[in-house]
Amino acid sequence: MPPGENVKGAVQPVAGSSGGIESLPDGVLQHILGFLPSPEAVRTCVLAQRWRHLWKAAPCLRVGCDLDQSESVEELRSLVNHLLLLRGGSPLEACYFTFYAGRRSHDDVSHVNLWFRHVVQMCKVRVLTLFMFLLGEPWLELDNLPVISQHLRSLKLIGVQVHNSLLNFSSCPALEHLELSCCELPPSVKEIVSESLKHIIVIASMCGWDSRIRIYTPNLVSLHLENFQGRTPILERMPSLLKASVEITIQCRDRCTNANYFWTCDNSGSTANGSINCVLLRGISEAKSLALRSASNMFIFKRDLRWGPMFTNLKTLLLNGYWYVPDDFHALARILERSPVLKKLTFEFCNKWCHKVEMKLCVSSMKRSAAISEHLEIVEIKCEVVDDRVLKVMKFLCAFNICKLTCSAPLAFIFLKFTVMSICMKESIA
């Protein structure tokens, strides 16, 4: 390009400017300031006359977001009060509060609740995250008041205590994403209600010990429940659900002391709300993809199967060792019988992040068993080592003519192929 000739369509510098950042319009500068921690964004007011008030209209507020140097509510109290006061009702696209929950006073609780309500109601925030670091202290308690907003789309709460009114999102018609991590949902919480929610994540949160929380979110698209403490929540029907992952760990109170817990449970408190039939599986039975993990002594999944849920849309299913304890494949057989369009089945014998061996078995199109989905194309087995549990599952699969094998561990492949062929031959002879 000849010297001095401008590229067609290029933005021309503002007259009298150097052509650098000063040439950008105010809206672009405010957008850039939204990526800075709010204290740093405020400091830009000393750069030049033009910058004095730009930070007040930045679309994002980030307070205490440095996880390595987290600050307490008391340390940030003056800063946040002045930030919100000077911003006035300037709208927020996103707000991120991160506080260290050390020794705190009643003033800390009242200030956090005031800031929470201010950004929701005055600043019309669309994406809100409140993150409280917990170090042995009680959860910071949010007010038992409903959240009312026409603008809030995403709410993420970490390390706080929430009550029933706050979790009724009937007055938040735009809310689509909810995450509760390391939160306490005390016995006063009876339900989570929203007609608009599409995505819910609940991780390592404490629910009631003697009653179940009802989750009514009929338009949910994805659900992730993991490592919750207390009673398993009751899931109402979710006809739009595409994907769900549920992991029931030893923190859950729905455990059984009876060794033969598939049909009955000797735990006197096992039902908790005795009139309840299906707790989890019926609510997620219309999903297209399911990952169902559980500790071995939990009874909810197997108990739910007795109520006959059908997985009519299910195409992808992942199961951990809970479903195929040695010499007991009742639960596995039942869920396969009730998944008529299943295409992919994965068995997970180890932690979901640390498998070393991955095997794929194919279903024989000529000798397909009528007891499994006619659409089933592939079965995966993920494990650390090929032990007796793995071989017993492979024997179970051979009964359905699932025998053709590929393996990610070359040294083990010949042995495994020979083993599978031997098992299949014995099954066919029998």
From TrEMBL:
Entries under InterPro entries matching the protein: F-box-like_dom_sf (IPR036047), F-box_AtFBL13-like (IPR053781), F-box_dom (IPR001810), F-box_SCFL_complex_component (IPR053197), LRR_dom_sf (IPR032675)
Domain of life: Eukaryota
F-box domain mapped to chain residues: 21-56
Pfam short name (any one): F-box
Protein name (database record): F-box domain-containing protein
Organism of origin: Panicum virgatum
